[in-house]
Amino acid sequence: MTKEEVAKKYLSFLEKGEMDKVISLFTADGVVVSPLYGTLPAIEFYRKLSEDTSSSRLHFDGLFFEKNTNRVSLLFDYVWTLKNNKKVKFKVVDILELTSENKIQKLTIIYDTVLSRKATEELRGFK
């Protein structure tokens, strides 16, 4: 699989909520760095995300390759519906660090958490 194929499959699987398929794109020790959930093993991050999510809609906005590295960046709009039916929409940059076999070793997620943090706190009963 090429870097571009990995990136596009990642977004497709994420939008469909196919977390096992998302995780299959990672190395066994792959990690996710999230502004909302912190740094977690990929399997744990996607389990927590799945527990909080009712549905997701993504609108792909760009794919960027960094010269002389195995990093690929994705830009997309994310409409996230939580289990309590709260919806938050935000622009996301995901930076995928790939191995030479094009498996995701590390995913760094960048977005403004103002709306999503409040929504997830409400979901968990914090005010």
Automatic annotation (TrEMBL):
Domain of life assignment: Bacteria
InterPro entries: NTF2-like_dom_sf
Protein name: Nuclear transport factor 2 family protein
Organism listed in the record: Aquimarina rubra
